[in-house]
Amino acid sequence: MENPKLAINGAARAVPDSPPESLFKWPILTEEDEAAVLRVVRENKFSGTDITEEFQRQFAKWQGRKYAIAYCNGTMSLTSAMFAIGLGMGDEIICPTKTYWGSVSQAINFGATAVFCNINEMLSMDPADIERCITPKTKAIMVVHYFGYPADMDPIMEIARKYNLYVIEDVSHAQGGLYKGKKVGTFGDIAAMSLMSGKSFAAGELGVLVTDDRKLYERAMAFAHYERNNANYITECEDLKDYYHIALGGAKGRANQLCSALALGQLKYYDERCAEIRKAMNYFWDLLDGLPGIRPIRVDESTGSNMAGWYCPHGAYHPEELNGLSVNKFCEAVRAEIGDKCWPGGNFCLHTHKFFKTFDLYNIGKPSRIAYSDRDAREEDDLCKPSEEMWCFSVPWFKHFDKEWIERYAEAFRKVIENHMEIFDDAERAQGGRWHGTSNE
Ligand SMILES: *Cc1c(COP(=O)(O)O)cnc(C)c1O
Predict the structure, then answer these.
(1) Residue 9 gets which letter from DSSP?
(2) For the chain, how long is the longest CA-to-CA vector?
(3) Minimum CA distance residue for ligand 1 atom 8
(4) What share of the chain is helix, strand, coil (3-state, %, to 5)?
(5) I want to staple 203 with a disulfide (CB 3.0 to 4.6 A). Which of 54, 126, 186, 263 is the partner?
(6) Burial class (CB within 10 angstroms; exposed 0-12, middle 13-18, buried 19+) of 207
(7) 173 lines ligand 1 (CB under 6 A)
(8) pLDDT (tens digit, 9 = 90+) per residue, 164-181?
(9) Cis ω on the peptide bond leading into residue 27 (within 30° of 0)?
(10) Which of 246, 223, 222, 224 lies closest to 235 in space, CA to CA?
(11) How far apart are CA 80 and CA 57, in angstroms?
């Protein structure tokens, strides 16, 4: 090609050099964090609950809910939330299909069925597709505030009230975020989330569950915390009192106090760090405003909502505005300009994984997802096909408002879009994406 403009065709890269490490480094760990962890080590407090209980108190206050319980990870906190609401054999739980597996795969542990609904253009649960999924067996809706975007809670809560369903919020991507002025994690009956080291609220390997309901709190505690399943904590659930001292889920879910110590430190600075991330990310997207083919996944902050710590920021991709250029090829061209940080997809849609089609956990010769159901929910998975074609791509997750660097990265995206006709695209128009967040990046 003569005089190519794009790096993928041999031209100079838009961002040839490396940014300062602090621009993307996360979590931000200081000597204060190191000292807190060292104290746990020196005092051999890995397994106790004193630091964890202090974290729970502070987190509940910050979250604006009465109770918080820390767990070894987010998956376990969400499993406990399912037990807390009494999810059981034959029950159905509705979940958006595009999310991390740990939002809903645990239904299998209760003989319950995951039912998938579509996402909307913001990659968030589409409230308009929820009622289609409701049957007399529906017990709960699992709402995911995906990629920091607050799910549309007003219509979701209205549907939940109309059909008398529990709402669990998976806040793993959106700790501290707001929906119309109110914190996500305070809408549903119960909320649970990951505080894993790659997440927005990052504290090693940790999970946390919050609720205002004493009974849900006690059930969630008894499920995975043998050492707190006793008369000090379980005071109102009469039906649980015969079972003190053993974790009722048959698995231990206690937090490692190294992580509770880290979480206490992160909590102290979390809001101010997120505010800077929002300023940086909003600036980045403002610079790309009006370009064809790409739209930010973000909310209008003047509505009182926000993107929390903007975990795993993505844009929505519209190939029809770029002469059909596939999202895979688009991302490849951007990566040629900036080196990394632009990958297609987000999570694959869960309804497409064989785990939800054929896997037989109970070893009874029947797919576990529907083993105790009087219908075959798999037959409706095809209705989630539209979600498979909601294209998206990741963008750099700026941790600091460094205007100059943000402008350079934005310029790379602009350059690819403005010269997209230069890209020969014979790539298969595949969905792109991953089952978990760590490959490809
Ligand atoms: C990470 C994540 C989980 C699970 O949390 P872990 O701490 O990794 O067990 C659950 N839901 C979502 C949406 C997640 O991103």
Answers:
(1) G
(2) 79
(3) 74
(4) 40, 15, 45
(5) 263
(6) buried
(7) yes
(8) 999 999 999 999 999 999
(9) yes
(10) 222
(11) 19
Taking only the tens place, the pLDDT of each residue in 178-200 is 999 999 999 999 999 999 999 99
326 lines ligand 1 (CB under 6 A): no
Look up the pTM and report it. Answer: 0.96
What is the dihedral angle through the alpha carbons of 322, 325, 327, 328, rounded to the nearest 10 degrees?
Answer: -150
Model confidence band, residue 441 (pLDDT cutoffs 50, 70, 90): very low
Instruction: Give the tokens for residue 256.
Output: 């490692």
Predicted pLDDT of residue 2: 82
Closest Cα to residue 132, out of 370, 358, 381? Answer: 381
Residue 25 CB neighbour total at 10 angstroms: 11
CATH of domain 31-264+350-380: 3.40.640.10
Give the type of residue at 150. Answer: P
Q: How far is the CA of 17 from the centre of ligand 1 (A)?
A: 33
DSSP string, 292-305: TTEEE----GGGT-
Indicate whether residue 194 lines ligand 1 (CB < 6 A).
yes
How far, in Å, CA of 97 to CA of 86, rounded? 22
Looking at the predicted structure, is the pLDDT value of residue 203 above 50?
A: yes
How is residue 122 annotated by DSSP? T
Q: Is the CB of 344 under 6 A from ligand 1?
A: no
CA 165 and chain centroid, separation:
22
Cβ-based burial of 290 (10 A; exposed 0-12, middle 13-18, buried ≥19): exposed
Report whether 321 contacts 292 (CB < 8 A).
yes
Q: What is the DSSP letter of 400?
A: S
Domain boundaries, the chain: 31-264+350-380
Average pLDDT over residues 84-88: 98
Residue nearest to atom 7 of ligand 1 (CA): 74
Contacts of 355 (CB under 8 A, 6+ apart): 101, 105, 369
CA of 222 relative to ligand 1 center, distance in Å: 21
Distance between CA atoms of 355 and 315, rounded to whole angstroms?
A: 28
**Cβ neighbours of 272 (radius 10 Å):** 9
Token pair 């070893």 is found at 363
| 125 strand-pairing partners | 119
Contact in structure between 180 and 304 (CB atoms under 8 Å): yes
